[in-house]
Amino acid sequence: MTVTTGAAVPRRIIRRGTAFRDAGPPVALVVIFAVFAALSPQFRSIANVQNIVDAAAVLAVVTCGITFVLMMGSIDLSSAGVMGASALTVSLLVANNRNDNDLGLLGIAVAVAMGCAFGFLSGLALVTLKVPSFMATLGVSAIGLGVATLMFAGVQPNISDVMLKSWAIERFLGLSYLTWIAAACILAGWLIQRYTRLGRYAYAIGGAEEVLTLSGVRVKPYKVAVFTLAGAFYGLAGVMVTSQLGAGLVQAGNGYDFSAITAAVVGGTLLTGGRGGILHSAVGVLLVMVLTNGLVQVGVSPYWQGGVEGLIVVAAVAAAVIPQRRRNQVVK
């Protein structure tokens, strides 16, 4: 006769509950896609599916960055400003109508490096000045928008760089180059999360920062590194938006901060940290984009989309927090 200890049963229940929560977003994605496919023949066309995936490219890259921050239990609102500054930087460094620069890939690298610098500034403000993450990153976003406005100087820089413009125009296997860049970012983010110390510690900081500190790990450098990594993703996203628009705009990152948080949370990455990850957030991005596209296809006004995103965030956070609250009550 096998005796099951009292501790083993809760562990099994927790594992089953975690597996159920992880399966929830993919199941929801399939169900929502099936519903819209039944309601609209246009929605289920190959061309529309390609449009959905292509439209998700920039958001996926931004979400990769914000996912690492959320895993630590922090909030990052800097993406709009960082993307604006990076967009203006790359548009003025590659071939354009404002100056004689034609740096090509070097200009793109500088724009991504600028994103890293803004991310580093956010992390530094968090760990040295003890400013809450949402306030520190909101301030950095304002700085980024200010820098972008100065570079804009009242004249829109239009890019003529063939390589950068081809990212949004040329296709490989039916998808734009931007989509393949986003897929590479998701893969890179997953590898960092899974196989590097930075990814593991980001999880650990969100789950139990005090325990990690007591074990002798210097947490602050890793926090700064995570924000710097997130800034790199935002910088690349700014370059991608510039490719789409064919010009550098201060407002290149408008709305992406909230949409990225929505996608990450819907995919299963907790705002309190310690759960979720890149693949979860990637599913969340697809879920948000399928829902947005499907609402348009069935005739729902685009003006309702922001409200729908807000309701999704509230529902997703509630679904994640309620089980934790119940578990805490049992412990108490």
UniProtKB/TrEMBL annotation:
Keywords for the protein's UniProt record, in alphabetical order: Cell membrane, Membrane, Transmembrane, Transmembrane helix
Transmembrane residue ranges: 23-40, 52-71, 77-96, 103-127, 133-152, 172-192, 224-247, 253-271, 278-296, 302-322
PANTHER family membership: ABC TRANSPORTER PERMEASE PROTEIN YPHD-RELATED-RELATED, RIBOSE IMPORT PERMEASE PROTEIN RBSC
Membrane topology of the entry: Multi-pass membrane protein
Subcellular localization: Cell membrane
Keyword Membrane included in the entry's annotation: yes
Broad class of the protein's primary localization: membrane
GO MF annotations, alphabetized: transmembrane transporter activity
GO cellular component: plasma membrane
Source lineage: Bacteria, Bacillati, Actinomycetota, Actinomycetes, Micromonosporales
UniProt-recorded name of the protein: Sugar ABC transporter permease
Pfam families hit by this protein: BPD_transp_2
Organism: Catellatospora methionotrophica
Domain of life of the organism encoding this protein: Bacteria
